[in-house]
Specification:
six-stranded antiparallel sheet; four-stranded antiparallel sheet; 15 strands
């Protein structure tokens, strides 16, 4: 399977970084990438000889990650030292703390304030919500001092932005609901309506409005087929993942679905 057309430019930039770093026996890091772009870039880099790659997101469950690339021996050494966080020094963590007891702030509020400083999205990784205490954010290390002085308010709440070690990240295990559904087809409208327990007509409206994505790509047709491993997200409702698919004796599909709550 080739690179998705919408990812070609991003993957080309990563490949250029990888070749240059390997020639100089250095390790460099891409911008923060979305999961589908990261997957395409990783597959492309692995086709290069003597070039290694390591996913660096700051913690094991990170969604937005940097791809650390360089000579395979340097990457292997860094993977041992960095562990689940990725290559050492590729990602930094910040605590954005304030009193949100009386004015709740969402993930979008924090992201809006971050981008309001003038920083582009590819410089920021995951945002880990901490309830009424604020949030923790993953960023490129060179912007630590900038954020400490510039990120001072989220919504109407004054915040203090401070650097913290990756070991201080407080990541809660996701709440999930796993169940099986028997469907006549593997169409996105059938499985997603079952996963979110909504009518297919309602889901069709959401697809028409651009609210539904499969593997982070917008869905345009209700007839699109899903497979094991696909992740479907619906704006404002969360996401589901397609698990094991088994054909029943009656020719229907018994599908394991996991909904992230």
């Amino acid at each position: 399977m080739g690179v998705d057309k919408s990812h070609v430019d991003d993957v080309a930039r990563v490949l250029e970084l990888a070749r240059s770093a390997a020639d100089r026996w250095e390790v460099v890091h891409s911008a923060f990438l979305t999961p589908p772009v990261l997957n395409d870039a990783l597959m492309a880099v692995r086709k290069l000889s003597d070039v290694g790659a390591l996913i660096s997101g700051g913690y094991s469950q990170a969604e937005r990650c940097r791809l650390s690339v360089g000579h395979v021996e340097a990457i292997e050494a860094g993977s041992i030292e960095g562990g689940e966080a990725g290559y050492p020094g590729a990602v930094a963590a910040l605590s954005v703390s304030g009193n949100f007891m009386f004015e709740t702030a969402s993930h979008g509020d924090f992201l809006g304030s971050i981008l309001g400083t003038g920083v582009t999205r590819d410089k920021v990784g995951d945002i880990i919500m901490q309830g009424e205490r604020g949030a923790q954010i993953l960023v490129v290390p060179e912007l630590i001092e900038f954020f400490q002085s510039s990120l001072v308010q989220v919504r109407n709440v004054a915040v203090q932005t401070t650097a913290i070690p990756l070991s201080a990240l407080q990541v809660k295990a996701p709440r999930v609901d796993t169940f099986k559904s028997v469907e006549a087809s593997l169409r996105v409208d059938a499985l997603t309506s079952a996963g979110f327990r909504m009518s297919r007509s309602k889901l069709a409206d959401l697809i028409s409005s651009g609210e539904v994505r499969v593997n982070w790509k917008e869905v345009t047709k209700t007839s699109m087929s899903l497979k094991t491993g696909d992740v479907v997200s619906v704006r404002g409702k969360g996401r589901i993942q397609v698990g094991e698919i088994v054909m029943t004796k009656k020719g229907r599909y018994a599908v394991e679905l996991t909904r992230y709550l």
